Fold this sequence. Notes:
Elements: H1 2-11, E1 49-54, E2 66-68, E3 73-80, E4 82-93, H2 98-101, E5 102-108, E6 116-119, H3 120-123, E7 134-135, E8 139-142, E9 146-149, E10 153-155, E11 158-165, E12 171-183, E13 192-200, E14 220-226, E15 229-239, E16 251-255, E17 263-264, H4 268-271, H5 280-283, E18 287-288, E19 292-298, E20 306-312, E21 318-320, E22 323-328, E23 339-348, H6 361-364
Parallel strand pairs: 6-13
Antiparallel strand pairs: 1-12, 2-12, 3-11, 4-9, 4-10, 4-12, 5-6, 5-11, 7-8, 8-9, 13-23, 14-22, 15-20, 15-21, 15-23, 16-17, 16-22, 18-19, 19-20
Amino acid sequence: MWRRNFVQSMLGTAGFAAIPGLAGTPASGESAATPTEWVPAYARLQRYRSRKQGSYDVTGGNNDAWPIKAGAEREIFNATGAGVISHIWFTIAADSMHLKQLILRAYWDGNSKPSIETPIGDFFGLNLGDYVIFESQYLACSPGQSLNCYFAMPYRKGARLTVTNEGRGDVDAFYSNIDYLEADSIPDDALYFHAHYRQATPNVAQSLPGRKNLDGGTNYVFCETRGRGHLIGVTLGVIQTAEGWMGEGDEMIFVDDPAKPVVNGTGTEDYFLGSWDFGGRMNAQPFSHHQYGAPLIQSAEKIGGRYCLYRFHGDNPVTFNTYLKHTIEHGHANDRADNFYSCAFWYQDRPFTDYPALPSVAQRLPRVNG
C-alpha cells in the first residue's frame, strides 16, 4: 500500500487522479463525484494503460533472457510518449563481480546523457558485489538473486534504459521485466528520477584543527546537483582499512547554499537509523527495514570489515530550490581512510546529466586497500 501511495505522490499531489486518463479522473461527459476515500484506490477504476517490456522470448520459446557480450551495451527499455516506470526486476547469470561490472543507465525525454548512471549492484543496495537478502520500501533482493526496484520514474516524451557490460567476461543471461504506466500526459509537477554512483578508495584521512569540521569541505560526497527537487536517499558500501569503528561521521546536507550545510547529523550509524556502532565489534547484527537498514555487516570494526547500508527519506524528502549537495564525514572530522562506494537517489524538475565520470571497472571492484 505504501508503495502505491509513493507512486501516486510522485505523479502529483492528487496521485493518479492528477493524470488525465488515470484512476479517479472523470471520463468525458462525467461529473466529479462526491469523494469516496473509503473505497481504496486498487478497487476503483484504473484508466492508465498497463504495459511491460522485458527479455521474454519473442519466438514463443523459453530463451527468456538476453546475453550481453563483454564490452557490449544492451537496450532493455524504450518507450515513447508520457508514462511512469513503476517497477524493475532483474536476475543475472554472469561473472561473480557482475554487480560492479554492469552499468545501468536511464535517459529521459530523448536526452543524450543519462540521469541514472551507476553499477547495478550499488543501485540495488548491494554496493560490495555480494548478494544479500533484504527488503525496503524501494529496493529489495530476494532468494534466487532477484533484484527489485519500486522507485517511480516519470517521463513526458519517452524513456530509454540500457545495461553496459564493462567486465571481461560475457553475461550469459540477463533477465529483465520493467512494468510501466502509459498515459496521455503527466502532471506539470511530476519530477524526473536520478541516481548516480560515487566512490572514494580510500577516503583521504584528515587531521583538522581541533578535530572539528564545520564546513564539510573534505566530506565524502554522495551527490551534487543544481535545479529544484528533493533528495530521496542513498545506498553505501564500506570496507574498513583500519581497526576500530568506521563511523562517527556526521551527514551534512547543503541546500541552496554551497557554503553551509543546513542538515547536520550526529554519526554514521545515526544517519542510517541504527545506534551504538550497530552493536559493536561483538554484537553488530544486520537488519533491514522499510526506510533504513544495514543488510550486510561482516567483521565489524576490524580491518576488512564490510557494511552495506541504506537510508531513504520517503517520510520527509530533503527539498532544494536551486542546489543540493549531500555529504557525510568519513570518521570523526574525516579522520578515517575507509573505502566508500555509494549511489544517491533524488528527483528534480529537469533531467540532470552533469555527472563526474564513472571510475573504471577495475577501480570499482571492492578491496581493502586503495
